[in-house]
Amino acid sequence: MDYLNEVFNIKVKYQEWKEEAKLPYMITDRYSLRIAFLNQKKVIFAYVKGDVEPASTIKKHFLLIHKVASLPIVLILNKCSARQRKALIKASIPFVVENKQIFLPFMGMLLQEKYDCDCNTVVSLMPSSQVLLFYYIYSKKKELLMSEIVDALGFSAMTITRAVKQLEAIGLINTYKKGVLKIITSEYMGRELYEKASDYLCSPIQKKGYIEKCDIPKGICKAGYYALSEYSMLNPPKILSYATEKLKDKSIQLEDKLSDSEMQQSIEIWTYDPDILAMDGCVDILSLHQSLKEDFDERVQGEINEILDKYWEDYYGERI
Questions:
Q1: What is the DSSP string of the chain?
Q2: Are 96 and 76 in contact (CB under 8 A)?
Q3: Separation of alpha carbons 282 and 36, rounded Å
Q4: What is the pLDDT of residue 107?
Q5: Residue 146: what pLDDT?
Q6: Residue ranges of the chain with pLDDT lower than 70?
Q7: Is the pTM of this model over 0.90?
Q8: CB-based burial of residue 108 (10 Å sphere; 0-12 exposed, 13-18 middle, 19+ buried)?
């Protein structure tokens, strides 16, 4: 897959997948499956053998594959129309179209690419753009100074400038100058802005794994089901989850599978620093929603939606 190497400097190595025989014929008849390593990130490449199924059907197929593989699954296509691309992204289905499109939300891969209809479109937000958008929503202000955003988020002025341009390109924010000051504003607020951005938002989780309890950094944000239990009436999970942008101690080994439930805890490596938007020791509500949106547990989805409804109620002062 030279395209991934050219665009994101991701070297792809392949390995035969020996568990394919455990899948039903309806899956193996539609896809050719291979293990792939994307810079050490282990995934399943699913090559479509015939016509591309609707996104809702692909999602069901991938759920069956995931039950056997417990790995991210990437759809590999020869071509993809703008309509198909939009449906796949809305369904959060990772995919690659050689020399045209890449959508790998679990690795924070973001593109502005060409489609078969020859139109240029933002596929998903850069991590800095997503943080900026969430910060704007949380501020509850109609206008923010560019300098204030740079100071608050800790990104460089150049990074914030790129993020602002991307958000402007898809019509989520506007900017204007007041003397030497650059002002960021939007015609949308709160829930409306969040829903307008929904097709472009990604899970911040780049990688998940397990480490020894004693290796969990102090002051790290609660994440996943653990954070969900803090925001809701759910009981805390047995395996607690935390989030960080990176493990500073290079000697800590991140394991793909849980080997000791008494001694290990879960950790998520994010595409941005969860501390920037953290709320009372937990990852922020909007980032938590994005990190759990691919979870198929109906109870989890019910709880996170209830949390969002309550947040918007507090945001506006009334339930909407």
A1: -HHHHHHH---EEEE--TTGGGS-HHHHTTEEEEEEEETTEEEEEEEE-SSPPPHHHHHHHHHHHHHHH-S-EEEEES---HHHHHHHHHTT--EEETTTEEEBGGGTB--EEE-TT--EEE-S--HHHHHHHHHHHHHT-SEEEHHHHHHHH---HHHHHHHHHHHHHTTS-EEEEETTEEEEE-S--HHHHHHHTGGG----EEEEEEEEGGGSPTTPEE-HHHHHHHHSSPPPPSS-EEEES--S-TTPPPBSS-S-TTTEEEEEEESS-GGGT-BTTB--HHHHHHHHTT---HHHHHHHHHHHHHHHHHHHTS--
A2: yes
A3: 33
A4: 73
A5: 92
A6: 1-3, 5-9, 108-122, 318-320
A7: no
A8: buried
**Which is it for the CA torsion 305, 83, 131, 243, positive or negative?**
positive
Pick 127-200's CATH classification: 3.40.50.300, 3.40.50.720, 3.40.47.10, 1.10.10.10.
1.10.10.10
Structure-block tokens of residue 239: 């395996």
Length of the chain: 320
Domain boundaries, the chain: 2-117, 127-200, 205-316
Taking alpha carbons only, the member of 206, 278, 288, 283 closest to residue 247 is 206
Tokens of 207: 């990688």
